[in-house]
């Protein structure tokens, strides 16, 4: 095990890895995707025979970004879809749910 990996060996929470490697992260993305992010981080790190701290930092940042730009947004859309179908079997997602900053109240 390399020195960089030894330093991480005692960590258990995803947030601890981000802090130890000094990688900025979105707490909301980590809260929803922590297991997937850490799994992807492990996959990226495993591609290097003896990763140093900078390599591990890059791997963790890359794993985080994967979910910032894909899964977190998709998960929100699915949650809204489940909420609005209400078991009626209709696939309806209001546009306001996809871009709340640009939505206007109904009836205006």
From TrEMBL:
UniProt entry tagged with the keyword Lyase: no
Function per UniProt: May protect the nitrogenase Fe-Mo protein from oxidative damage.
Keywords linked to the UniProt accession: Nitrogen fixation
Domain of life: Bacteria
InterPro entries xref list: NifW
Subunit structure: Homotrimer; associates with NifD.
Family assignment from sequence similarity: Belongs to the NifW family.
Protein name: Nitrogenase-stabilizing/protective protein NifW
GO-annotated biological processes: nitrogen fixation
């Amino acid at each position: 095990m390399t020195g960089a990996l030894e330093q991480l060996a005692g960590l258990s929470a995803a947030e601890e890895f981000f802090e130890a490697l000094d990688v900025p992260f979105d707490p909301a993305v980590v809260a929803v995707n922590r297991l997937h992010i850490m799994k992807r981080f492990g996959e990226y790190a495993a591609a290097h025979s003896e990763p140093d701290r900078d390599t591990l930092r890059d791997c963790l940042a890359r794993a985080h970004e994967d979910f910032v730009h894909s899964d977190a947004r998709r998960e929100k859309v699915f949650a809204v879809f489940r909420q609005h179908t209400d078991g009626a079997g209709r696939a309806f997602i209001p546009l306001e749910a996809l871009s709340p900053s640009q939505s206007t109240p109904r009836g205006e």
